[in-house]
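Incident log, structure service

09:12 report received: a user says their structure output differs between two submissions of the same chain.
09:20 pulled the input from the user's history:
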Amino acid sequence: MVEAARGIVEYWGRRTLAELLLALPTRHNLVHLNESLRLKQKRR
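09:34 re-ran on a clean worker, output below:
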């Protein structure tokens, strides 16, 4: 993992699927939804 991305991974990795889906759906959030779920699965 790139060190500069560590904070992003930690932030999105703590979110549950429900939190991600209930967050205000902005285009930015929707772009990163799949990426955050993929990172979360890698951490398991």
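09:41 both user submissions now match this output. Likely a transient worker issue. Closing.
09:42 reviewer note: Residues 3-43 form one domain. The chain has one domain: 3-43.
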